[in-house]
Amino acid sequence: MSTIEQVRSDLGATQTERGTVVALPGDVLFDYDKAEIRDSAKPTLAKLAQLIAADKPSSIAIEGHTDSKGEDAYNDRLSRARAQAVYDFLKDVHSVAGDSMEVEGFGEKRPITPNTNEDGSDNEDGRQQNRRVEVILKK
């Protein structure tokens, strides 16, 4: 396996019609209810920068997402702030061109799994999966 294939695997990158998608778990990148990159997340973001350099995408979308806890407006702000933190880190630390990246926060609008169980109880695992930043490398 080549180095870049290993990086893709390590990041769990998937190919979609949108491009190469890397979903970064929010609890890996950020402390609860925060938008500052954790020191422990920096190696993961370094691998992402390596993948960006190898893929040379035409543009990069950085999309923040939250679970359904809290007010919509707050979740929208938090998801955008987290996506912006990833943008800033890639630009400032890894010299990814800022004009090639766009940032958007979706709050709780695009869950990948239910935030509640069928009986209406809290789905903690589901909420955790929904708290993420997705980076899409477009061709």
UniProtKB/TrEMBL annotation:
Does the keyword Membrane feature in the UniProt annotation?
yes
Q: Record's InterPro entries?
A: Bact_OuterMem_StrucFunc, OMP_bac, OmpA-like, OmpA-like_sf
The places in or outside the cell where this protein is found are:
Cell outer membrane
UniProt cross-references to PROSITE patterns, sorted A to Z: OMPA_2
Describe the location of the OmpA-like domain by residue ranges: 17-139
Respond yes or no to whether keyword Glycosyltransferase is given for this record.
Answer: no
Q: Where is this region: Disordered?
A: 100-139
> Where along the sequence do coiled-coil regions lie?
none
Q: Which CDD domains does the entry mention?
A: OmpA_C-like (cd07185)
- For bias type Basic and acidic residues, the affected ranges are 124-139
* Main location, first listed in the record: membrane
Q: Supply the alphabetized keyword list.
A: Cell outer membrane, Membrane
Provide the protein name: OmpA family protein
